[in-house]
Specification:
mainly beta, 5-stranded antiparallel sheet, 22 strands
Length: 327
């Protein structure tokens, strides 16, 4: 039987070698009207800790431990446009650096989808953002811009992580990239024939019809390029043109030959050279998020089914679909 004593109105448990059992429950089960100084144990996944009410908010009693994590965040690429000499899609924004994660915090991982390619009756679509959000961490890469094309009249290239390429008309210049994430798309034109501009890449701007090159990363332990721009289309003749290294789509000719950006690279879609309203520009490739951390710190608590590999003393999580990581 545990022994307790009261001294000067204080409960003294020091004579016992047992433990004190505190109220325990989820975040939703917190007291409705707590008084300042209330203490409890939160059992919710990702929140498991002692917490106290400070008069305004519930705050953790134990200070979280921080550890460093390398990250790569690539957004979805923009779609290439359709019609004669249409622009390639811009690559998704590319961000790579190091941040600190806090133990017990759930970090939301969002993978941006690539934008749809344009058709004669609709514009190309920009890619979607990819992000890591949680605690004090807020990292967002911007989706790539859609390429310029034709919808009864010419429509402009879109801005994005990297900008979409312009169409052959002199007034349709390439879209702008986002500083630190990607580069501008090229202006359309330059012949012979109708030539669409290449979409910007993470490593370089579009140049003429050529999609900009992406940027290489060794976060997985080997060098891989991501976020290449889609090449522009050409009409009526010429040759297909591969997109920027890093998943950029091929620019097509009259009759086809264009391709979409590569899945999970953030590559921009290739523009078309076809005058047929039945064709569609290449879609942008979806994005990817990669986390690299010391294996000693890796918790093993994830959702979204990331691919888990190791390299030396580090664990690497590759997310190709949205999920979470609990530090």
């Amino acid at each position: 039987m545990a022994i307790t004593k009261v001294t000067n109105d204080l409960l003294d448990l020091s004579v016992s070698t047992d433990a004190l059992a505190l109220p325990s429950g989820t975040t939703a089960q917190r007291p409705t009207n707590p008084v300042e100084g209330t203490i409890r144990h939160n059992t919710e996944i990702g929140e498991t800790k002692l917490e106290t009410y400070n008069g305004t908010d519930w705050v953790p009693v134990n200070k979280p431990v921080l550890y460093s994590v390398d990250y790569l965040v690539v957004a979805g690429g923009g779609g290439g446009a359709q019609y004669t000499g249409s622009g390639g899609g811009g690559a998704g924004g590319y961000l790579s650096s190091t941040t600190s994660l806090s133990t017990g915090i759930i970090y939301s991982i969002t993978i941006g989808a690539g934008g749809a390619g344009g058709v004669n009756t609709s514009e190309s679509v920009s890619g979607n953002d990819s992000s890591i959000l949680g605690g004090s961490v807020s990292i967002t890469s911007i989706g790539g811009g859609g390429g310029a094309g034709y919808k009864n009249s010419f429509y402009a290239a879109k801005n994005g992580g990297s900008g979409g390429g312009g169409a052959y008309a002199a007034t349709t210049s390439g879209g702008s990239g986002t500083l630190g994430q990607g580069n501008d798309g090229a202006t359309g034109g330059g012949g012979p024939g109708d030539v669409g501009g290449g979409g910007g890449g993470a490593g370089a701007a579009g140049s003429g019809r050529q999609g900009g090159i992406g940027t290489s990363s060794t976060i997985t332990g080997s060098s891989t390029y991501y976020a290449g721009g889609g090449s522009g289309g050409q009409y009526p003749s010429g040759s297909t043109l591969s997109g920027g290294l890093g998943g950029g789509g091929t620019g097509g000719l009259n009759g086809g030959g264009y391709t979409s950006g590569t899945t999970n690279t953030g590559g921009g879609g290739g523009g078309t050279g076809s005058s047929s309203i039945a064709t569609q520009g290449g879609s942008g490739g979806s994005g990817v998020i990669i986390l690299r951390m010391p294996t000693a710190n890796y918790t093993g608590t994830t959702t979204g089914s990331p691919t888990i590999t190791t390299d030396g003393t580090d664990t690497i999580l590759t997310y190709t679909s949205s999920g979470t990581y609990t530090a």
